Amino acid sequence: MILLSLDNFHMLKTFSLTNNNKINLNTAMFWILVLLLGVLPSTLQHEEYGKFSYANNILSFQEVSTTDGVSEIVHEEDGLDPKPPSIFERTSISKVFLLNRNLTAIQEGTFNGFGSLKVLNLDENLISHIPERVFDGLDSLMVISFKRNQLEQFKIVSSSVRSLHLSKNLLKKVTNEMFANTPSIEILNLHGNILEELEPLAFSSLGDLKSLTLSNNRIKTLPDDIFVHCPEIVNLYLEDNQLKALGGSFQPLKHLITLFLQNNKIAEVDSRAFHNLKDLNTLDLSNNSLVTLHEAVFKHLDQLGELLLQNNQIEDLPDAIFGDLSKLSRLLLNGNKITSLQADIFQGLRELRNLKLGNNQIRSLVKGSFTGLDRCYDLDLTKNNLSRLKTDVFTGLKSLEQLILNENELSEVDVGAFNGLDLLYIISLENAKIQTLDALAEMGGLQIIALRGTKFQNDTELRVGSKLYKVNTYQTWVLA
Predict the structure, then answer these.
(1) How far apart are CA 84 and CA 430, in angstroms?
(2) % of the chain surpassing 90 pLDDT
(3) In the prediction, which pLDDT does 70 show?
(4) Which residues contact 351 (CB under 8 A, 6 or more apart)?
(5) How far apart are CA 462 and CA 353, in angstroms?
(6) Which of 316, 273, 277, 278 is nearest to 296 (CA)?
(7) Looking at 190-199, 338-347, 471-480, which range is the least confident one?
(8) CA distance linking residue 365 with residue 373, whole number of Å
(9) I want to staple 202 with a disulfide (CB 3.0 to 4.6 A). Which of 32, 174, 247, 458 is the partner?
(10) pTM score of the predicted model
(11) E strands, 138-246, where?
């Protein structure tokens, strides 16, 4: 037995009992714990006061007499037998964390009297059922987290909860009734379940919903009216599902800022799918099965800042497809099957800074392909089928600082190919078949040339026009 005395406890603010099996506190000493702000992982026992019980792995609260002062209970796995923290007054507790305790159920009435409870975290347990009215009377409860449990169904009554986390459970369907009695939810996380179906009115009671996470499930379709009753959603996460087509489901979401749809099987997008998303800033459609895009699909997205289309099967870019994206700063088209870039295809992207076109099948560039990209400073054309760069082919890229042309043939580069690139700082020509560097001679700002895998790779010095470049330890040639 460890005996703790009152000496020097009068200024106690934090009391840590980590890695102690059992500590007995006499009644007189216990009143000092009024000053406690937290009780850390331990096995703390005092039979004169109430405590959580984990008997048979079912969570309940055993009421005895109580005391005041503790506002937070933290009890995580500490290698000890799963015995409860204790010595706290229910009416003053604002946060309860009971993580990784092998709990399988919650007893009805467990939280009766916890009127000040604001945060409840029961992550990483084995809970498969939650009594529907177990949170009755908890009018201050705002955050509930049941991540990494074994819930197959979920339905509770709580008019106060704002943030609900149910990721990594075994939920298969979001029914029309599931959230009918939790109308104040603003953040809902259902990531990593096995959801296959969303019933049409699944979120109909969640008019205040701001953030909805449905990623890493098995969702194949979105009902047309699924978001009609929650128009305040700002962030929507649907990545890593099995969606094949996008229709009009998003049209009610006029305040949406981020929409993540990557890593699905999307092959078809309705021309009006995104038309009402006037506040949208980020749209991620990467790693899908898109082959064609309707010319009007991105119309009216004048606040869009990031458009991610990499790793699809896109073969062609329709005229004016990017015409309304006046605030777009980042466009990723790498990893597609684009064969050509027509003149003025990027016209209107006056704020674009970063353009990725690598790993496509582009055979040639024409003058005017990059017209309108006055602010673009990073262009990547790695691993295409470019064999020749004609004079003035990069016209329009007056702010370009980095140009990546790795793994192209480039057997012929006209002397005026890089005209207008006065701010170009680095050019990368690695693994290209370039035969001469004459086209670089008049580029006054060029500081770095990357030539690994070319006929120049063994040269320690390169004379380009009147300038001398010397190789460094990274096998790039730097202006001397």
Answers:
(1) 63
(2) 78
(3) 42
(4) 326, 327, 328, 329, 375
(5) 31
(6) 273
(7) 471-480
(8) 15
(9) 174
(10) 0.85
(11) 143-145, 163-165, 173-174, 187-189, 197-198, 211-213, 235-237, 245-246
Contact between 47 and 101 (Cβ < 8 Å): no
Q: Which two tokens stand for residue 195?
A: 């959801």
DSSP-derived letter for residue 120 is E
Query: Cα(166)–Cα(29) distance, rounded to whole angstroms?
Result: 40
Give the integer Cα–Cα distance in Å for 39 and 33.
10
What are residue 330's DSSP bridge partners?
Answer: 306, 354
pLDDT at 146: 98
Q: Distance between CA 226 and CA 201 in Å, rounded?
A: 6
The predicted pLDDT at position 460 comes to: 95
Q: Following CA atoms 112, 114, 118, 124 in sequence, which dihedral angle do they give, to the nearest 10 degrees?
A: -60
7 CB contacts (<8 Å, ≥6 apart)? none
Four-CA torsion 133, 119, 89, 8, nearest 10 degrees: 170
Q: Three-class SS string for 46-114?
A: CCCECEEECHHHEEEEECCECCCCCCEEEECCCCCCCCCCECCCHHHCCEEEECCCCCCEECCCCCCCC
Angle at 185 between CA 184 and CA 188, to 5 degrees: 175
CA angle 370, 371, 372 (to 5 degrees): 115
What CA dihedral angle connects 61, 63, 67 and 69, to 10 degrees? 10
CA distance 191 to 214: 5
Helix (DSSP H) and strand (DSSP E) numbers for the chain: 1, 33
Residue 39 pLDDT > 50: no
Contact 363, 339 (CB under 8 A): yes
Q: Which of 106, 19, 104 has its CA nearest to residue 96?
A: 106
Domains of the chain: 61-150 (3.80.10.10), 151-289 (3.80.10.10), 301-479 (3.80.10.10)
CB-side exposure of 190: number of CA atoms within 13 Å? 29
Q: Is the dihedral of CA 442, 446, 448, 450 positive or negative?
A: negative
- In the beta sheet, which residues pair with residue 284? 260, 308
- Round to whole Å and give the CA distance between 227 and 245: 16
- Residue 32 three-state SS: helix
Q: Measure the CA–CA gap between 214 and 219, rounded to whole angstroms.
A: 9
Listed in order, strand segments (DSSP E) in 218-353 are: 235-237, 245-246, 258-260, 268-269, 282-284, 306-308, 330-332, 340-341
Q: Do 25 and 36 form a contact (C-beta atoms < 8 A)?
A: no
Alpha-carbon distances, residue 346 vs 82, 295, 326 (angstroms): 62, 13, 10
